[in-house]
Amino acid sequence: MSIAPRPPIPELIPESAPFTLEQRTWLNGFFAGLLSLDGVGIKTLSAAESAALMPSLPGMVAPTSGGDDGEAPWHDQTLALAERMKLAEGRPLHRRMMAAMAQQDCGQCGYNCQDYSEALFSKKEARLNLCVPGGKETARMLKTLHQELDSAAPVATMSPTTVAAATAAPAVAPGCSRDSPAEATFLSRARLNKKGSAKETWHIELDLGERIDYTVGDAFGIFPTNDPALADAVIAALNAPADFPIGGRTLRDVLIDGVSLGAAPDMLFQLFSYIAGGERRQKAKALAAGEDPDGDAATIDVLAAIQKFSGVRPDPEAFIEALDPLQPRLYSIASSPKVDRKRLALTVDTVRYQIDSRARLGVASTFLADRIKPGDMLKVYVQKAHAFALPADPAVPIIMIGPGTGVAPFRAFLHERMATKAPGRNWLFFGHQRSNYDFFYEDELAGMKAARVLTRLTLAWSRDGDQKIYVQDRMREVGRDLWAWIAEGAHVYVCGDAKHMAKDVERALIDVIASYGVRSVNDAVAFVADLKQSGRYQQDVY
Ligand SMILES: Cc1cc2nc3c(=O)[nH]c(=O)nc-3n(C[C@H](O)[C@H](O)[C@H](O)COP(=O)(O)OP(=O)(O)OC[C@H]3O[C@@H](n4cnc5c(N)ncnc54)[C@H](O)[C@@H]3O)c2cc1C
Ligand SMILES: NC(=O)c1ccc[n+]([C@@H]2O[C@H](COP(=O)([O-])OP(=O)(O)OC[C@H]3O[C@@H](n4cnc5c(N)ncnc54)[C@H](OP(=O)(O)O)[C@@H]3O)[C@@H](O)[C@H]2O)c1
Questions:
Q1: Whether residue 348 has its Cβ less than 6 Å from ligand 1
Q2: What CA–CA distances, in Å, run from 188 to 149, 208, 335, 373, 374?
């Protein structure tokens, strides 16, 4: 007996309905089943009808395989990839793809973690290597998961030269997304630490002209260029001509502004494994598979990779194809358009460190600290904050916790509240290493205090004395007042390091609420979860 082919599921839910592709597919199947059972004639539901049905659907996340309750327990930037994947076991593919992301919702890929995974799942996005905090680990996991998509899936990792083609048609106005940058003019940099500081942090100013609009709380994307000296060292190590033509440009130009010279990608080791012989081929293969045969994998950048496999001479074009595209970097905006619509400020910590005898430079931070000159143009865009904004009611009090460069968006908040004469009280927790050297915006904050815009300033210096004092220690010390502000409806904001500080600050807040709000720890945890849910606890962490 032959089995009749299954009829295709009718398209009952219009494309304009507010669902992801996966949700729509599941809903179509769901309604097709219902309608055929009832013998009702099939009609296409309007977007409003299907939206109205939404709350009655289980968790509103459509399982394709395995159950999915819509929760994302892996959505915690402090969990390792293996733990996140374990938590996502048995979930539908798009959820496991989400678990592979670094969970910072940092926006560097142009999405939040959930949207990026859904864009990959629906094949609207083909680039698997966009998660900056997840790095190679996330890209490798996504590559594995991507193989579960049907064979018509787009190529796993886009090469730098194909990225340009994929992003050629901007759907939004210039300056509004990483795929559609605008130009700004670099105005100035001023060192925020005093001489003798262990840190190098710059106040950067840019002129946006008439081109770009932003809101306080947004982040700003910068397209950096690599250090030309590093590009030259790569060219010398490759023993290739600097003017070797690549897609109408020279090898040197592409190395400066087209590709990442940071962590060597798996593809580069794969390329070396095709060319090298004997033991070196095995080593290159192992590195391409994410192994660490010599215990140095974490420190191999592109130049170190060429040096490690010295004598292996890849074709320059194949070499460039094997590298990752140079990605933009995000910075929290430290100014308010209400003060000056065109002038935008950033607070940038410079990344410099040494591996063996070679100085390594953070690409974007040293681009801003060293290489760009006043008057130069640079490619930029605004990354809209998805949940980091001043309260709509200007009378609502705010508590801002921002050690180090975490102070950036709070300078913007204070400027905005000053410019708009917002009556709400403002409390800033700032901390850094040493009070004499690392007190960013000291005069300005003193001025705002005198003007009563900054109601309260609480400082934590980690290296002034024998004992480290962090912002969360200060929060506990002033817990009674902190609770009083929260009980009066204050919104709480945290900005800065994601890995440790953000978690420690949340723990301190829970302790304060438990102690002064007279709640059990469990109730305090639930209270903070409620604050988050209602938008009264917002984080901008990286
Ligand atoms: C939403 C958001 C807002 C941000 N806001 C700010 C901000 O306001 N100010 C700010 O300064 N930054 C901010 N950042 C971080 C910023 O985007 C960059 O990540 C940072 O400037 C480093 O970029 P880079 O290109 O200079 O360094 P990269 O070239 O990206 O190099 C950094 C990498 O170098 C390696 N590395 C760094 N130090 C060491 C070391 N000591 N030893 C070994 N390896 C090391 C690490 O792998 C690290 O990931 C923000 C990030 C996000 C996502
Ligand atoms: N991933 C990490 O491990 C990590 C850690 C710190 C910074 N960073 C990154 O470094 C860049 C620049 O940092 P930054 O200039 O903003 O300053 P920072 O290095 O974050 O330091 C700012 C202040 O925070 C203190 N601090 C360190 N750990 C803390 C914790 N767990 N809780 C509260 N405070 C803590 C520091 O003290 P001490 O330096 O004296 O400890 C310092 O006084 C950022 O991109 C940030 O993400 C990464």
A1: yes
A2: 48, 13, 14, 8, 6
